[in-house]
UniProtKB/TrEMBL annotation:
Alphabetical keyword list: Membrane, Transmembrane, Transmembrane helix
GO cellular component terms given for this protein: membrane
Domain Copper resistance protein D: 46-152
Lineage of origin: Bacteria, Pseudomonadati, Pseudomonadota, Betaproteobacteria, Candidatus Accumulibacter
Transmembrane stretches, start-end: 9-28, 48-68, 88-107, 134-154
Annotated protein name in UniProt: Copper resistance protein D domain-containing protein
Amino acid sequence: MIYATLKTLHVLSIIVWIGGMVFAHFFLRPAVAQFEPAVRLRLMHAVLGRFFQAVLAASLLTLATGVWMLGRVAKQVVQSGGSFEMPLAWTFMAVLGVAMVAIFMHIRFVLYKTLDRAVAASEWVAGGTALAQIRNWVSINLALGVLVLLVTLLR
């Protein structure tokens, strides 16, 4: 029961994270592109601030549940007399998951802070530059997330 609960929390966190990136990148961003820079940047700043709070929780929950599930499986194998060897797909998932969290932390604590300062100072060019950098890193994280899903589901 504990493993099923952990796996459910793990998957739900990933859905929030990847689903939010898809929504922001493919639907929200193109829709607000028609707005003047001051309106667009204020709106994106507000939306991303809320989204990044959710992703911070989701990313940490994803890591915690993943590590906990790995630990439980390893412990069960060892207690039954076996030798635990992590499957290649799990290793791939873990490495890319940690990379995604690191990228998100850069987005949230470096790039979003730059956007925050630019919006507060009404510096729209600097804000546009920060938003473009956020978009680029979100694209990379989205690609990594989809790759992890494909490897996990097609293994």
